[in-house]
Amino acid sequence: MVSRSTGVRLGVSMIAISALLVGCAGGGTTPTDDSSAEPPVTLTFVAYGGVGQEAMIHSYQQPYTAANPSVTFINTSPPDVAQVKAQVEAGAVLWDVVATSPAAATQNCGTLFEPLDFSDVDTADLVEGTVGECYIGNFINATPFAYRTDAFPDPAKAPKTIADFFNVAKFPGQRGIITNLQNGILEYPLLADGVAPDDLYPLDVDRALAKLDTIRDVTTFAPNVGALQQAVGSNQVDLFLLSDSRLVPLMNDGADITVVWDVTVASINAFAVPKGSPKAATANEFLKTVVSPEAVKGITEALGTAPVNLSATLDLSENAKKVEVFGAANTGETVVQDVSWYADNFNEVSTKLTNWLAG
Fold first, then answer.
1. Which residues contact 225 (CB under 8 A, 6 or more apart)?
2. Are 2-13+40-140+269-316 and 141-267+322-358 in the same CATH fold?
3. pLDDT tens for residues 7-50?
């Protein structure tokens, strides 16, 4: 059973990119030049670092630069809506492409993020909600409950439900949770507290935080997926809610991890362009390509995420198949985050969660 989010309407405005024509003559001869070449543009690309961003470089950036030699990339991490806000308000926007949630891009569309033109993107095979007025999705990111197998070597005595993640007495050990709203930090405690998947939205944020209070002393709250991936890899946590895109690299490196398929939270990961980026038009053209079958195939096979373009032909590794949220491995239920609800509440909920984490 899959609960899916409400789609966001496509933007229909057209952004034109003008060619720069440079004339040059002198001395009675016509020098050889390439006056039709596009001027060089370097886009600052902000994602979550590590193997995830390396896969984006390989699947998105390198093919684009090969086809468009005038466009290159500078990579940095991590993305942060608060940092986008600071840059926009200061009138000094340094980032051009930012990984973010569709909800953050939608609630802040036109204020923190640029309206984008994807009117010529073929959406026939795209998952609902992939394209919005101020964002485009690049993959569906699931955040399964998993544990280090050596922490619970006896399958009969190992965790089997999301409620077990919150049962410290029966299943002792250090927990790991990503604080990004996209990774289920509010949905999972509600599910563990007895809320049915179909009844999650609107989220009872206070109830979710109260449930998190019960494991606060034994939980590592990681600021991003890379930080929690590192904690898992160094055996600092025993049970964790970690993105499929980081479980696969850990497994590829030899980590023995068991995924618990009970109820799993998934969300669309997206890219947006900060409002006022002087390179917004170039960024817009680049972002059109991240939903192509070739780009989706590359990122899905590298990270084990679910594809946003259903026409992509996939050849998944055995480890990627183990975390395939819409594949045979998932014997439980999947909740796809409600983009509409988050779009209306993202800023307020982010503030409440930040205050709770600080307290």
1. 48, 50, 52, 178, 180, 183, 242, 243, 245, 246
2. yes
3. 333 333 333 333 333 333 333 444 445 545 689 999 999 999 99
